[in-house]
């Protein structure tokens, strides 16, 4: 008798996988560490809005209520996820943090949760997302104790910061958004790693995402010419946070941070600045320490897969950045990627049952 599919993570990727498993009539359970569905979004900084407008921020089978052209905030999307799970009666077990996943001698998997419970499964879909542990470079040790240091995971809003200059390291979408809101109360320096490419938010009256989706750019395979160009550029929409806009708002744009001492930050162009707060916004890394399955990760702890299929039989992924294409890291890509993975998983089960 086959055991239920175990889906780890009840974010957009895990719920999308649940939708297709439910649609196929498969037995499954979704586990999540949070107390509520959507807590991973509620834990982000207060002013966070999604990368894409509502029309491109939906999961299969349920529209996002509201203006299709505007960007939902973190709480709206968290509520959408809760509504989604309830609408399709998805079996989610909250408060279940996976501490360890191993593969047994018979090929099945056993997950041990932080509360000591265990569950066995013949197939596992890892849907833990690509934003797990903030990257904190070694330079963090160079600043003195008088400097408050935060990450995009621990920063909430500018009202919680002490008086004094704020240095934000990393000029991605989050770094730029945080720089703009902090500038309302403090002087702000934004340190970039190199030239940043932004594309227009709208073109001929329509969202740039509409055009990219229409042209098929977002569905281009990761190893295609277009995919490689997109990955290299790592561009995102200019929503009023381009370099010119930042400068007009009084944000000082600095070159790459190369050293620090006490409260002094030193940059690649030879300039320096004294700061009171540092916010690290240089990206995230995976926490794969719980995945104790040989062949599931490489020697650096990176999840191993090809388009979401692990070399380990019965192990799958959904929601990995560039899992299949640029859309894979966006809400709009969760559904298509989940549909493909669930089809492969169930297809393999049917083949095994027919033997």
Automatic annotation (TrEMBL):
One protein family per Pfam: Pyr_redox_3
Keyword entries, A-Z: Oxidoreductase
InterPro entries: Auxin_biosynth/cation_transpt, FAD/NAD-bd_sf
Record-listed E.C. numbers: 1.14.13.-
Top-level taxon of the source organism: Bacteria
GO molecular-function terms, A-Z: oxidoreductase activity
Nucleotidyltransferase keyword on record: no
PANTHER family reported in the protein's UniProt record: FLAVIN-BINDING MONOOXYGENASE-LIKE PROTEIN (AFU_ORTHOLOGUE AFUA_4G09220), FLAVIN-CONTAINING MONOOXYGENASE
Name assigned to this protein: NAD(P)/FAD-dependent oxidoreductase
